[in-house]
Write a structure and sequence with these properties.
With 269 residues, this protein is mainly alpha-helical. It has 2 domains: 34 residues; 210 residues, MetI-like fold. It is built from 12 helices and no strands. The longest helix has 35 residues.
């Protein structure tokens, strides 16, 4: 009797809380979008808002179907994904290099940190005229702008994390003969891995934000271009479609990064 009771109690203690279970979390994530969708459908069906200001959900679906039939929707998505991916990779790699210089070297911090702090305050659209003059309205200017957006979240989080690695851990590593690369790989890198992942996730979100500004640089395709073109032609249904696409693409790419995060943390932590 006692053994059975103990086993039952242990199983109950090992069972995760309701809101920590993956199926429950996934289902809960759909609640707010479904409520918004229902409210949107009610408002438009009841005629509370005129269609030229807020078309119904089905009108947005039809706009998407129309672009698919024309063979344009997947092209817009593919081009935007390519721009975000390249800009994100370029910005993140450069940011990691500068973060290492600033976070691991006092000289590097003194030289680069003030300038990078000042550049971080520059709004994204302020770079547009300069990039057009330097690189024209080609892919290089768009990818550069996205890379700028991805740079600062990674740089800021990783550089700050490197500065605040526990000095006792570093000293202990040196006591065991670790220096340079071996010290970084054994002590400092595992300590900053969570910050690296957090910085990458923030950078990916920034890359999608900067995409819209980037596709103002003379683009003729892309989700950001679709958003701007629809505004100029008064196609509110396509504007909403572009916004939904940006939200979905951002969510999907973030989910991929979460999978990467789990694999990295399992390896290093």
């Amino acid at each position: 009797m006692t053994t059975s009771t103990t086993t039952t109690t242990g199983a109950a203690q090992q069972r995760p809380p309701l809101w920590s279970r993956t199926p429950v979390k996934i289902a809960a994530g759909f609640v707010v979008p479904l409520v918004i969708l229902a409210a949107w459908q009610y408002v438009t069906a009841a005629g509370l808002v005129p269609p030229y200001r807020l078309p119904g959900p089905w009108s947005v679906v039809e706009a998407g179907i129309d672009l698919i039939e024309r063979g344009q929707l997947w092209t817009h998505i593919a081009i935007s994904l390519q721009r975000v991916f390249i800009g994100f990779i370029v910005g993140a790699v450069i940011a990691l290099a500068f973060a290492a210089i600033v976070g691991l070297s006092r000289v590097g911090g003194a030289l680069f940190a003030p300038t990078l702090v000042a550049l971080r305050a520059v709004p994204s659209l302020a770079w547009v005229p300069l990039l057009i003059l330097w690189m024209q309205a080609g892919e290089e200017s768009k990818i550069t702008l996205i890379a700028i957006g991805a740079f600062f979240p990674v740089y800021t989080t990783v550089a700050d994390s490197l500065r605040h690695v526990d000095p006792q851990w570093v000293e202990a590593g040196r006591t065991f003969g670790l220096h340079g690369w071996s010290l970084f790989r054994t002590i400092q890198l595992p300590a900053v891995i969570p910050s690296v992942i957090s910085g990458l996730r923030l950078a990916l979100a920034q890359a999608w934000l900067f995409l819209v500004a980037a596709e103002l640089l003379g683009a003729s395709m892309g989700v950001g271009w679709l958003l701007n073109d629809s505004q100029q032609t008064g196609r509110v249904d396509r504007i909403l479609l572009a916004i939904i696409l940006l939200a979905l693409l951002g969510t999907i790419t973030n989910a991929i990064l979460v999978v990467f995060e789990k694999a990295v943390l399992k390896r290093w932590m």
